[in-house]
Design brief:
With 376 residues, the protein is of the alpha/beta class. 43% of the residues lie in helices and 15% in strands. It is globular and about 65 Å long.
């Protein structure tokens, strides 16, 4: 059986829902928002494990977090935004032992000194630990400061995806081939390499987030899920105007390649019983921003050669997330409905005060999502 014929039962089960539901984990201090407004969000394992177990109980389909390599002080400011940055591969391994159903995705910068054999072995191990629920969010990296931490030189944007193609192709062979693999590639070589045990389902879930042509071409060929960003910034009205064409292009390319790929977008959800309360929280986050951290955070993404995220304004970066959905439970569900109608197959939500916001989301929003036909 070819690798392409292998299915991932956890993903197929998730696809029964009209709208996939994921949770972005707060693995970095300050999570998504360089703000000093009051919250309890923390990056430690115990806190993220609580979030994950709550999400699993609520029926979420997947969780994952960012990978960051930060210098002392992170993005700076009084809060030292994201100075503490836990590793998602190791966090995910810990979560595999305490969860039963939810998919666990690790973000890895595959060009920061990895060999495909390392990740093939580590990924297969976590996949075994989780009984087939592990996935890889492959990123190539673009920050000069990160590349220099590993003693590497900057790689041209499109070339990074040429390298990623070879990396992932070899990794997939190591997951699927019953015999030893010898490979003499342009970027990686191996002799008589072997991985056993294999992933539970013959392969692992593959995820990518890219907006450039080179990145999208790679994702179409290799990914099960593509995390997309709004071409029009974080305003919901603007996003749902721009997203239909963006989603249509991706899915047309996928169909032409014989692939069934789902797109997932990242809303920052601020939900309260009244719209006034929700808007007040939005304003509070913005008003109490750490200006130094916010300036540095915004400048980092505006200055890179990546295509994703660049349409958001500085204030939208302070709130965090790719699309902002602010309001009552009914308004949040309506926002999700609009994203679905714009062609998004799923939402990967993040919050400001994670445990409290997630609990409210589970109590008040998910039942309405079911009533609206977005969840089964």
């Amino acid at each position: 059986m070819s690798e392409e014929l292998h299915t991932i039962p956890a993903l197929e089960e998730a696809k029964r829902n009209p709208l996939l539901l994921g949770l972005f984990l707060p693995l970095q201090s300050g999570a998504w928002s360089p703000s000093l407004a009051s919250r309890d969000t923390r990056p430690d394992f115990d806190y993220n494990a609580r979030c994950t177990l709550m999400a699993e109980e609520m029926g979420f389909d997947l969780v994952f977090g960012l990978a960051q390599w930060m210098g002392k002080g992170g993005y700076g400011g009084e809060m030292k935004f994201r100075e503490d940055a836990n590793d998602p591969l190791l966090i995910t391994a810990g979560l595999a032992a305490i969860t039963k159903r939810i998919m666990l995705v690790s973000t890895v910068h595959i060009l920061y000194g990895w060999h495909p054999l390392h990740l093939a072995k580590f990924g297969a191990t976590i996949d075994q630990m989780s009984n087939g629920r592990w996935g890889l969010n492959m990123v190539t990296g673009y920050k000069k400061s990160e590349v220099e931490m590993f003693g590497l030189g900057q790689i041209e944007h499109d070339q990074r995806y040429v390298m990623a193609e070879e990396f992932v192709s070899l990794m997939r062979r190591l997951w699927s081939d019953p015999d030893e693999v010898t490979f003499d590639g342009q970027f990686w070589k191996t002799k008589n390499a072997f991985v056993s045990p294999k992933p539970v389902n013959g392969r692992c879930l593959l995820v990518n987030a890219s907006s450039s042509k080179a990145g999208m071409d790679y994702a179409i060929r290799n990914s099960d899920l593509i995390f997309i960003t709004s071409p029009a910034g974080a305003d919901l009205d603007a996003a749902v105007e721009a997203l239909p064409d963006h989603n249509r292009k991706i899915k047309d390319l996928a169909r032409a390649a014989g692939r069934d790929i789902k797109t997932v977008i990242n809303p920052h959800v601020i939900c309260r019983e009244t719209e006034t309360e929700a808007r007040a929280q939005y304003d509070r986050i913005l008003a109490q921003q750490d200006s130094v951290a916010a300036d540095n955070f915004y400048a980092t993404f505006m200055g890179g050669d990546q295509s994703s995220w660049k349409s958001a304004s500085r204030d939208q970066w302070v709130i965090g997330g790719n699309v902002h959905i602010v309001g009552t439970p009914e308004q949040v569900v309506d926002g999700f409905r609009r994203l679905k109608e714009a062609g998004c197959d799923g939402v990967q939500v993040n919050f400001y005060d994670y445990i409290n916001d997630l609990q409210f989301f589970g109590d008040r929003v998910i039942p309405l999502m079911k009533q609206a036909g977005l969840r089964v």
